């Protein structure tokens, strides 16, 4: 085998692994509704790959450990598949595997939030003129 033939066919172990941009993958895995929301979350530090902040252009590979903070929820997951197109939810859920600890923690936090608002009862009707004035007055107290 000549040297030129050797260079034209790199060894499979040294060939670069295929990857997908992290913002596209987060959108395809249905963590965010739009790619721009995914990009904004990455830029504001809500997404970490391997314990480090990621950039939107970073490529995600199968096996990468990732942490995604969305609202009050925090997902710890491992990438199991790659996709650059958004599909149905069952297909999107097959792209990652969430850790058991992460699922349990999110369930506990969700239960805590539900318990905190259990005492709240929404009003049955809209506030009348007097009630609206009282609400506005209370709002002015906060501004002081």
UniProtKB/TrEMBL annotation:
Per its record, how is this protein called by name?
Heat shock protein 15
The record's section on CDD domains has: S4
- Per the UniProt record, one Pfam family is S4
Entry's family note: Belongs to the HSP15 family.
Species name for this entry? Noviluteimonas lactosilytica
The UniProt record lists the RNA-binding S4 domain at 20-82
What domain of life does the native source organism fall in? Bacteria
**What residue spans carry the region label Disordered?**
102-128
Q: Which UniProt keywords apply?
A: DNA-binding, RNA-binding
